[in-house]
């Protein structure tokens, strides 16, 4: 079924403005809820005064368990039509992936908030147990929201330009919102304000839950049926079919490998606030380049879809990624000289953000390819793998950063905010400061270059994906699609 044409803003598009708005706002709430952990977890655990190598080890154990959770849920999302289960029908409503979101989304902010309720007076061993349990539950509920949310981009519409427009808009808004949220959180826990991280996380979780609610009723999926396949075969979905979908999707594997390498080595976020405080004298000073680059970044991001339409998403991603890496190299070799680093960060931001937006366009393309090749609806397992990679890499980068910092002679200081750290008056030794700079600047540089290099092996062409999407939606026949493809897939 298609949306009402009088409310659709562009020819060939299927979603209404209201549907796109509610989807983007819901995704923003999900993104910011997850960003609480990304932005504050490392600092929160450092403030607990726990041995950093123990925290790093606990993170990796959680990720091993979480790998199984993600695959199982991805399989269930693809196999089980939850709307057919009578007990859930009143809650889930219509759709393919949206019903899963309606059923589970509220659990995510609950367990995110509980993670930050770790009792400060408990011994280190008990704190590690708390961390393990609630970080695992955070990861699980992250998957319960992430997989349906990301899979939905395929079922909202089969129009690839419409998808890219939605992806660009939500990436730009998410980027801007995470910058603003990160700055507000940094100010709140700074030595100048002194609000505890726990209070910041709890209030934020309530706000982001409210943002996720409108998606439950304000969006309709318009592309839920896979056409040009045997309906009986499409209904059957076994573990073997799931494995075949994964095995067939070699372009997804290239994309995920690039993400794993790049994101696992993005260790700068683990020590960013510490670098700002110990190297530049204030936990707030690194907000200056972010503020200066805000407008250029928004302008650059808004042009990504136009650049991709003209030059192709792969070329845009690689060129902007390489330029960003070269600037990161300059930052490392210049060292912690604030004026120069600030200028370089401002120059780097537009290129890095365009590369990020362009990369968000690849995932739906790989799913359309796999649906076309296998005749199976496989968005759930593909996005479950992507969700796992996202969580794995953010945790690995954080644990790697903390582990390396723990190997130096960094002096742990317990507290609730940087106000407490300032009151303690601890001076970190030069070795710890040098290691901090390596974690912040050098390791992410290596990750970016390797990630860009891997994407050279991505050979799925944009114009062929558009044809496959039309075939999957039943707008053209498989024979017509095969005749127009640029090569044999």
Please give the count of helices: 22
- What would you call the structural class? mainly alpha
What is the name of the CATH superfamily?
A: MFS general substrate transporter like domains
Beta strand %: under 5%
- Estimate nothing, just give the exact number of structural domains: 1
In angstroms, what separates the terminal alpha carbons? 29 Å
For the biggest sheet, the summary is: none
Q: What is the overall silhouette?
A: globular
Give the gist of this structure.
The chain has 489 residues and is mainly alpha-helical.
How would you explain this protein's 3D organization?
- This protein has helices at 17-47, 52-79, 89-92, 98-104, 107-115, 124-156, 160-189, 197-212, 231-235, 239-248, 250-264, 268-280, 287-302, 304-311, 313-334, 338-360, 362-374, 379-407, 418-424, 430-454, 462-473, 478-484.
- The radius of gyration is 23 Å and the shape is globular.
- The protein has 22 helices and no strands.
- It is mainly α.
- It is 74% helix and 0% strand.
- It has a single domain (16-220, 232-410, 419-458), classed as Growth Hormone, Chain: A (Up-down Bundle).
- The chain starts with 16 loop residues before the first helix and ends in a 5-residue tail after the last helix.
Element layout with pairings:
Blueprint: H1 17-47, H2 52-79, H3 89-92, H4 98-104, H5 107-115, H6 124-156, H7 160-189, H8 197-212, H9 231-235, H10 239-248, H11 250-264, H12 268-280, H13 287-302, H14 304-311, H15 313-334, H16 338-360, H17 362-374, H18 379-407, H19 418-424, H20 430-454, H21 462-473, H22 478-484
Helix pairs in contact: 1-7, 1-8, 1-12, 2-6, 2-18, 4-6, 5-6, 5-8, 6-18, 7-13, 7-16, 10-17, 11-17, 11-18, 11-20, 12-18, 12-20, 13-16, 14-15, 15-16, 15-20, 17-21, 21-22
């Amino acid at each position: 079924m298609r949306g009402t044409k009088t409310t659709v803003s562009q020819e060939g598009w299927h979603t209404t403005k209201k549907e796109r708005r509610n989807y983007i706002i819901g995704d923003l709430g999900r993104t910011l809820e997850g960003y609480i952990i990304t932005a504050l977890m490392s600092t929160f655990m450092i403030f607990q005064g726990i041995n950093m190598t123990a925290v790093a080890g606990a993170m990796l154990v959680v990720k091993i368990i979480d790998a199984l959770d993600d695959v199982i849920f991805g399989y269930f999302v693809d196999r089980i039509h939850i709307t057919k289960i009578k007990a859930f029908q009143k809650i889930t409503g219509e759709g393919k992936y949206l019903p899963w979101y309606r059923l589970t989304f509220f659990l995510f902010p609950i367990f995110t908030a509980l993670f930050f309720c770790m009792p400060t007076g408990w011994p280190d061993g008990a704190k590690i147990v708390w961390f393990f349990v609630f970080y695992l539950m955070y990861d699980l509920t992250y998957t319960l929201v992430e997989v349906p949310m990301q899979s939905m981009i395929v079922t909202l519409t089969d129009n690839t330009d419409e998808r890219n427009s939605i992806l660009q808009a939500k990436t730009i808004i998410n980027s801007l919102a995470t910058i603003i949220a990160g700055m507000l959180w940094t100010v709140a826990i700074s030595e100048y304000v002194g609000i505890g991280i726990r209070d910041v996380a709890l209030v934020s979780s309530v706000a982001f839950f409210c943002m996720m609610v409108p998606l439950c009723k304000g969006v309709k999926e318009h592309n839920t049926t896979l056409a040009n396949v045997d309906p009986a075969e499409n209904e059957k979905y076994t573990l073997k079919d799931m494995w075949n979908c994964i095995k067939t999707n070699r372009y997804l594997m290239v994309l995920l490998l690039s993400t794993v390498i790049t994101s696992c080595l993005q260790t700068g976020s683990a020590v960013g606030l510490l670098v700002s405080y110990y190297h530049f004298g204030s936990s707030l000073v690194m907000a200056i380049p972010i503020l200066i680059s805000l407008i250029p970044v928004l302008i650059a991001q808004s042009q990504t879809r136009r650049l991709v339409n003209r030059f192709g998403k792969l070329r845009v991603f690689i060129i902007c990624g390489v330029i960003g890496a070269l600037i990161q190299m300059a930052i490392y070799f210049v060292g912690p000289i604030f004026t120069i680093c600030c200028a370089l960060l401002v120059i780097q931001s537009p290129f890095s953000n365009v590369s990020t937006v362009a990369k968000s366009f690849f995932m739906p393309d790989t799913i359309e390819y796999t649906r076309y090749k296998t005749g199976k609806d496989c968005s759930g397992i593909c996005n479950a793998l992507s969700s796992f990679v996202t969580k794995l890499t953010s945790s690995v980068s954080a644990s790697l950063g903390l582990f390396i910092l723990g190997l130096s002679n960094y002096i742990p200081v317990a507290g609730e905010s940087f106000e407490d750290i300032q009151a303690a008056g601890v001076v970190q030794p030069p070795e710890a400061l040098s290691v901090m700079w390596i974690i912040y600047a050098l390791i992410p540089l290596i990750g970016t270059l390797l990630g860009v290099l891997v994407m050279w092996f991505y050979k799925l062409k944009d114009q062929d994906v558009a044809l496959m999407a039309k075939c999957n939606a039943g707008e053209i026949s498989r024979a017509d699609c095969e005749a127009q493809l640029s090569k044999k897939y």
